[in-house]
């Protein structure tokens, strides 16, 4: 991957833009599908077909002609060219640039297609190169890309080498028409290729920076051919081609095409060219707009124009304003043209990054975070008139999850029943609640995708009519009449114009088909040729993951829209002959999964899915003709889901035909409201070990094919009655995270939360609309994952308050809370004292009631402001972001929360104190890792806050608090989209103070230990490098609040500032408050986390391990290796530089050795078989098992004075590495020093006992020469396979065998050699038991002594836990080696 000059380096083009630049769209444009070839035959020599777009003109060319040099290219110096800063260019504009001539403007063209396609035809130019997609990979640098040109023609190598000398670099593929992938990562394979190229030649081209950003040719080669014809292309002979073309059948849509007059009439009806008649006093009450009438018989003047839905279409009210707390696009008069309405040109320069305007205070209820890393505020405003349409969408941004529903009554508009149109109304209401699709139509984005020339569509009429309907559904009306929409549906299919009841699922498919065709951005592509028999056999031999991807690409070649991309389920139906096992697989797509249900009883949705995907055996009459056997054979069929869409629709097949009769199946079907996991029913991804043999575009995982696949229910359609042609349909839909509503035609009513499950899980449910609930990673998190090479995985955060999260919050005695102040600075506090002060009080709503420091707590001040009396926390229409961390330190459990304030008050009790009551709607929750939490028992205390300091530098007491802290809480934000409050823990002193003065500022650093690889806090710091931190003093109640800027340090930069760290965060404090007794709780320290690493000191502190200065180069050289058992070996090292370093060690200490030079290939190094090594510094501490310098050594052949030994088991990355080393290779590793102290103290005449578990004997080995073995007792539990370690020890110390009790496990499965070892040991050992150690073995009586003065333990965690219980009341010392 490219390596920037420093981890915090950011080129000027990535600096924040001026505050008046609009934020980018939240949905990246994308493109799926194979590239279309030009049908140019097999021309193998270079031929210039045209000199101008119009035809041939001798040897002249309209493209720039560089002068031949040594390598074919030299550039002449000219004055700088004045070009607009743009990232996209049209074919016509590119031609104009090229036509200016190379003396005025030099253009380098990059053709991003396979070499064979390039040879078939490319834009004619001598300054053109081909970069095949297969060589491009994420985070590639320009230098790395240049290395791939080794097999390219020499002139292309020279052109790419001199890329920085061109005035403009233009790249293109076959047909991509958007560069939105520049704004962030994309799941689309072709966009990933273009993004990788753009990053390589521009963002990661440090040695040869381009003069301006590279520009995408909009529409690719197809756009060039459309404008200038195929005769303008140039062919070459660098590779052969295969001109075969294939086709793909589309859905059948049959209706009598609209004639020109009819089309005009519908457009006039939609756009308001026909003025409606003014209704008279006899107008039906139902047709009058309910919420604007005073009396049905005396309408106000302004109401006369708003009677029906058609009237609303013709005469919208431009003065209406939005009242939602979210940003809903306003109703725009329909007489405006498409361009006027939706293609306003932004004044912002497009090449600059788009950032939101920073408000003076966090905006109320801002939408969820988006892919662009900024918030969406206000109606849709395109940034440039020439921007191409959005094609293949990414997964919904967090603004599209169920947590983003408006908090008021918008979206609860009913639909008039126009005569048994309840089937239509119920489907529309569920689609209206499908947020990414609703927003797509509501904000006008659909207009740029309309395909007027698609013969399968309606000339754009269906999207226009549907969009108008959606906009009015999301205005403040009680109900509207969808007459125009119904009439147009009836025009396309007469069944839907009658007053007869219809099937809701059938109507959904009908609507989706027409919307898809009108918005099918690939509809104008030439069809692909059907596979022949040989090609089908080839496809059949492919893994299903690859074959399904090929088929999806073939389908999207001519069928790609927002509808199909978000809703389409792909499945594979495989037939298998039971005679010869030949298989035949067909692939298809549907907008919904049809599930059979049994005629009686009750069934779970998982059982339905299991039945859908299970293998079925064909009966005789349905047997299949096997293509291999050439006969009718018994066979099986199995359906497998190969693509799980973003929005999943399930159709429960309740209607069963018996002859001419249709009956309804009334079986109850149970399914979860949240957390439906269909992963077991979807084909798993292709193993990573197999991906290399397939092209990257086929094996690279997509979001729709990468598990897990978890969904949350947001809408259902219920049918009441006995048959499909009778009865009544209603819709039930989630209108916000905690509320469901019933849509019964014009009547909309909220559902009692206590009856939601029963209302939804009934015998009447026919369709379920389910949204992918996996929240996407935001750009900062994606960047961290990419830099640290974290394997792709789903975000485990839930977009609501889960029941488990609510339980943890209720029992947690502490809640850390973070928010932003009026200047968008993050602050963190910690409240509580006893369980129950914070708890769920509604669906995804929590209430916090606690005593707080009203005077000096910065979070209290940010939420409520300063003042006396009762202060409101959230004013009308506002909702401030808050991050939370409920934590139960005594049990080391915690839960992270994010939400927005609903309401609250702070009531003054005494001077400086107050009672906080806060209501927060939770939008995210996540249980998380407790790895570095030190146990503490929390109890309440009365705060008595006194401000010590609110300026910098920090007072000494505050520095002392930081120096002893083993825990702090940190809050960060992703711009103004969301917040994260988390903890960081470790040994006391893990936070190191760098400076604290007026001159140098207040700066400290802390290490980021290996964690759960989510990097949510660091992801926020990547996009918004600011953090608020609170250091609580659990002993005194003092508290230090700080806010400041942050810098993420990686690899060598982290190690340079904080040695032995691969990842660290440096904090520069910009404001602080130190308050005495400001906390309403105290804490009593329990057990420290066994996972806490040693303290990592600053280089300026001159401390390594045991005082070894880092500047002295001391190494350990492997001189001997001895294998004692199959998994235990003894290694002898010789120390170099020991004298210069003044290096000494004592018995009972450990040695720290660094294997980073051998195992670490830089911070980005990643091992799939050992993910824990991701943040591994490869620094290991091993107990020294040989006597130190100057101590007596028993036996012969011991280490010399400058040598030491370690005896270790092969259990991990480093020990496995050591087990492969031979002494002859003289492995040399840095020695960081000696430390620790686990010394067996034995006074004269005292009996002491040492209990060892397996290799836990090692701390004792170096101390045996100094112990009185006649008063020493060893209790040793060991596996039978490790008995040679015992023999080795008894040979060196024969007296030890008589005072040893040995407990041997695994004897029954041991070898003959082990049995012989055991027999030999039994002759000299005082006691051997072929079992585990028991409680009765650990006592004075069992050892036949009057009293054991002290017990020493070095054993596994589970054994140590038992021993501590058995030895309760005794003097016990122990060391843990189980982590």
Indicate the topology.
Layout: E1 47-48, E2 88-89, H1 91-99, E3 107-111, H2 115-120, E4 122-123, E5 128-130, H3 142-147, H4 154-161, E6 168-172, H5 189-203, E7 215-217, H6 220-228, E8 233-235, H7 260-271, H8 309-314, H9 338-342, E9 414-415, H10 422-432, H11 435-442, H12 461-473, E10 479-480, H13 483-492, H14 504-518, H15 533-541, H16 544-558, H17 562-567, E11 569-577, E12 583-590, E13 593-596, E14 602-604, H18 605-613, E15 616-617, E16 624-626, E17 631-633, E18 635-643, E19 647-653, E20 655-658, E21 661-664, E22 668-670, E23 674-677, H19 696-699, E24 710-720, E25 728-736, E26 739-744, E27 747-750, H20 756-760, E28 765-772, H21 779-787, H22 803-811, E29 814-820, E30 826-832, E31 838-842, E32 845-853, H23 858-864, E33 870-872, E34 881-888, E35 893-908, E36 913-927, E37 936-940, E38 946-949, H24 956-964, E39 967-974, E40 978-985, E41 992-997, E42 1001-1007, H25 1016-1023, E43 1026-1032, E44 1039-1050, H26 1051-1057, E45 1063-1076, E46 1081-1085, E47 1115-1123, E48 1128-1136, H27 1138-1141, E49 1150-1154, H28 1156-1159, E50 1179-1183, E51 1203-1209, H29 1213-1219, ...
Parallel strand pairs: 2-7, 3-5, 3-6, 6-7, 9-10, 13-19, 14-22, 53-54, 53-57, 54-55, 55-56, 57-58
Antiparallel strand pairs: 1-8, 4-8, 11-12, 11-18, 15-18, 16-17, 19-28, 20-21, 23-24, 24-25, 24-28, 25-26, 26-27, 29-30, 29-34, 31-32, 32-36, 33-35, 34-35, 35-36, 37-46, 38-45, 39-40, 39-43, 41-42, 42-45, 43-44, 44-45, 47-48, 47-52, 48-51, 49-50, 49-52
Pfam families: Rhodanese, UCH
GO molecular function, one term: oxidoreductase activity
Protein name: USP domain-containing protein
